[in-house]
Model the fold of this input.
Amino acid sequence: MYTRLNQAQPYALALFRVVVGLLFACHGAASLFGVLGGAMGGGSIPAGTWPGWYAAVIQLVGGGLVVLGLGTRIAALVASGSMAYAYFKVHQPEALFPLENGGEPSAVYCWAFLLLVFTGPGALAVDRLFTSRTTDKGEQERAAEPSTPVAA
Done:
């Protein structure tokens, strides 16, 4: 059973990445364009307002990059940081715990994106197209080099 679970792990991670990134991008689209119910119940955030508009841009762009698996670790790091900022500057001053201050989504997104920073994109990511070529080429070059024994 563990063997099958381990074989499916990259695909489960990819599904997690796509779902979290898509939901995050939807938050950004709602805030920027007033779609999907808009920002906080309707409408959009005026361009350039701090911090809401910038957070929405990070949500839309970062979420889109994470969905594609393009620059996943960097996009996830920025997204995680923005959600940590949102939690500590917007929610935490209201109350200590996320259940009390309405900061559950910020906290969950922060930790979900931080997980992606350390795990990478999983399978089926655009990042894999670039890393597999680099890795394969590096492995071929190392295999072609003669190995010299180390004298003790």
User: Anything to note?
Assistant: The radius of gyration is 20 Å. The mean pLDDT is 86.
